[in-house]
Here is the input.
Amino acid sequence: MKPFPSSKGLWFGLLFACLAAAAAANEDASWKSPQFLVDGFVELALKHDYSTRQNPVRKWTSPVRYFIVHGVGDKDLHRELIDAHFRHLAEITGLSIQPVDTRAAANFLVILASEAALESEVPRHFGSGPMSRNTMLFRHGQCLATFATERRGRIVRATTMIPVDAARARADLASCVVEELTHAMGLGNDTVQPLPSIFSRKFNGAFLSGLDHLVLKMLYDPRVKPGMNEKTALPVLKAIAAEYERDGLFATADSDAAKNGLARLMP
Here is the structure.
């Protein structure tokens, strides 16, 4: 196992990743149109794990209360990363997202484990089903996110798991935190489509892109109801996208995404 990088080294890595992500997002403005945003929403919010199968809209409608299960060291650093991204998600979605002191009070668990503990931790927290089913949820074979919904698409609980040593060895810790916590907001798909999105395998950014920012904002617009299918959602999505264009949100989306969240922790 590779040794952990120092906290100072991790911050320099985060700074480089943030600047690279912002540069990459600004280089590609081709997504900044209402139709592209609507298509991006369908790809990221209404599909799941590279599948073409359509899902209904899934979103939280109640306050999110999260608890961090610390199975590794550097608790303060990891909490700072997680708290910062949850604050970012709260700003974008308008949800009340707060930490709680006990696991029993939480509806969102963030589990920080070692890679060696992963095999035993997965069935403990996700059930004892076939591992092949569980591993389909892993990002790059490492980080995991899952959420449960009521029948009409309201998310009622979520869990993410991050093998910290493996993620840090790959300089991927911040990206895992951002991607998996955001997945659990209702953006359930990873995609091979060439979208400027942290959920696309063809995007090199470590943080939310401008497209991710607007798709998530759109998901939590009150007019987008949990349980909507693509047919019923499309007229609403198109109206919202047109409003974003009129209000200039496409022009500021990249900077809005980059200046908040984990970017606030950069020196």
